[in-house]
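Q: Give me the 3D complex with iron/sulfur cluster.
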Amino acid sequence: MIVQKYPGADGLAGTTLRINLTTGEIKSLPTDTRLMREWFGGRGAIAKIIYDEVPRDADPLGPKNLFIMSAGVMSGCFIPAGAKIGFGSVSPLTNGHGDSNMGGHLGPTLKFAGYDMVIMSGIAPKPSYLFIDDDVVELRDASQYWGMGSLECEPALKKDLGEDFEIATIGPAAENGILFSCITHDFGRQAGRTGQGAVMGSKKLKAIAVRGTGGIKVHDLAGLTEHVTAIIKRTQTHPNMEPWQKYGTAFFIDWSNKNAVIPTRNFQTTHYENIDGINGEALVEKCLITHKACFGCWMNCGKYTKAVIPGKKTVYLEGPEYETGALCGSNLGMTDINQVAYLNWLLDNVGMDTMSGGGVIAFGMECFQRGLITTDDLEGHTLNWGSVEDAEHFVDMIVNRRGIGDWFAGGTKRAAEKIGRDSIKFAMQVKGQEMSGYDGRHAPGMLLAYMTCDIGAHHNRAWTITVDMAEGRDTVEGRAKVVVYLQHIRPLFDCWCICRLFWGELDIEPEEIVESLNHITGWNIDTAEALKTSEKVWNLVRCHYLERNRANGRTFDYPPARSWEDKIPTGPSAGKGVSKEQVETMLDEYYACRGWDNDGNPSREVLHDLKLDFAADNLEKIGLLGKPLPDGIPAVRGERYKPKAF
Amino acid sequence: MEIKRIKVVSSKCTGCRLCMQICAISHHEEINPRKTRLKIEAHFPEPGVYKPRVCTQCGKCLEVCPENAIYRREDGAFIVIPEKCTNCGECIAVCKPGVIFQHRDLDYVLICDNCFKCTELCNTGAITIHTRVVKEDK
Ligand code: SF4
Ligand code: SF4
Ligand code: SF4
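A: Here is the predicted complex, encoded as structure tokens.
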């Protein structure tokens, strides 16, 4: 059908779609500019909508959960790396607000087609895909694509619809309700975290295909063009540009190993003896086909590669980037980059997040190492470190939920509950989501970042690892306020739907990005206001988590006991680790810094200051509103941190 | 006299489309990579390469234009005269690299005019300016 379109405010496409998948009804509405202004689109707008509209007892995989796709206010707007699209829903993995985003070309293209946001509810009666071609929006039959791997479905759809469609797909993992399933686009870009793919699969939505030929109007195009062109030209010669373009994030594999933070064999140790086989150098030498960038990005972190393993078909993929390299590399004891790349392809194609997926396989391997699962449980197979065959068979058991594969379909936490015998101690997750590729035992800020991350363990909200290196790794002092600051600034990029990597790597100041935002929207805001908006989103997400999970926040914020019980056994950080007391101290300081009470519940004062009185009322009703703080809330929550050399 | 055109090294292209964005912005004052005068072909999943397609200045468009709406400028560029162009598309049919474009908002075709804004922003060296000195014939 042809939908009605609305003119957009500056920076916005103008139209929002609401689609009831159960009935097939497609409604178009003018994009709520106030929502965009107050919540910055992307992650922020998603957080507000699911907080308001998804009932607290709704099953994340049921019809009442929403599945939202939002391109934010900066995506597609000639801002460097303005390429992202955000997805959000209540996460089946964490049972709290979940959002995840990806680069590529889909976000900008959605806006070129005229849409800022697509809000989907219900469950389609049969496998379907969402077709958007400028003004034409349809739910189409996807039976011929159902069951296909993500990386197979994308070319199939392009062949059927046209090369110029941008496609997002899910794989069989999501179709089968594996809770850490991802969404894939552009042959290897993923919205991996919080199980957004699983929600898409539960809604029987196999894919989203978008073509857009319109433009985006911005407030001051001449000013924006001048500003952005200057940033691009200035940074073309930045010393980090060359290594970044050459290796992408895989550059950090060596760095993490040297600094003894690389997870090795399910976070048993932090230094890997075979790093040369799987590092950035190996990737570029053995696997690289071409460097690959998202829309409008001049630093091209993407590495398009092929994996060649004797006896297996040659596979093409994007990656492995850092996280996959660590979590499917050292963390699984893989010795050759081709093995890591092959596993990367395997998980991409079945549609599992390579981070949680790597974590889940590693957890299985450690269970096997300790005899908690045996070949009898594994259909006669072993599950040994460093074996691609074993990993591949195990993944097949999980995807198809055969035997104990079913236990692992919900991630490490749920698997540990089935396996028992204290395995929860080394299920490396927080709030049900698996940790990223840094061990926090000798990087306490990073550990706190995982503990307090609003969507379960994830590095991206506060990449504190370099702060630990600069400020001292044996102390937890002062770490909380830096984590809070990073949790203000980094998620802003997910609201705006632009990449954050250039900010950290190329010394681009937050003020410069806010200036771009003002050129685009005409809002005329300053960095302080931007940070406060981000803090508002964070607090709303926290309230949402508490309202769904009904206990003091603190109870959810602990890492697995390995983090404080086991000292690092080998490598440069041998003998190091944090104590339980240090974990408690960091939480105390973190809550104080946020204006939350010592139980980890937001206080009314801070929620009022953020104009979240409605959330305070809701917490009060269930007895989880934070107690008033004796000295009132801190005026500045999170102190701006200027990275130091280390 | 100097003839200029864009030189392409496909293997360096990352598919970022900054070139297409700046091309559209500088000619049409709009963020809309569809109003572009060059294009990036993506060949994925196999073999996994991007191919920038640009005007090679072969001159076929000028030969077939029934309206005399295209002329060759001194620097080598083939310039479309919007007032004369009827958007008939004859030139599109003969353009081998496929770099003559139409857009629903416009009533004339788009051909690269050698402004080189795109090469300025390309950060990989995939597209650069190629200059050739030719003897002037008097
Ligand atoms: S740095 Fe990487 S992820 Fe970010 S926009 Fe560029 S290519 Fe995409
Ligand atoms: S700017 Fe350069 S690297 Fe980017 S798409 Fe264009 S030709 Fe390729
Ligand atoms: S030289 Fe100018 S007109 Fe030609 S493709 Fe590049 S930006 Fe467009």
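A quick observation: The beta strands of chain B are 2-8, 39-43, 49-53, 70-72, 78-80, 127-133.
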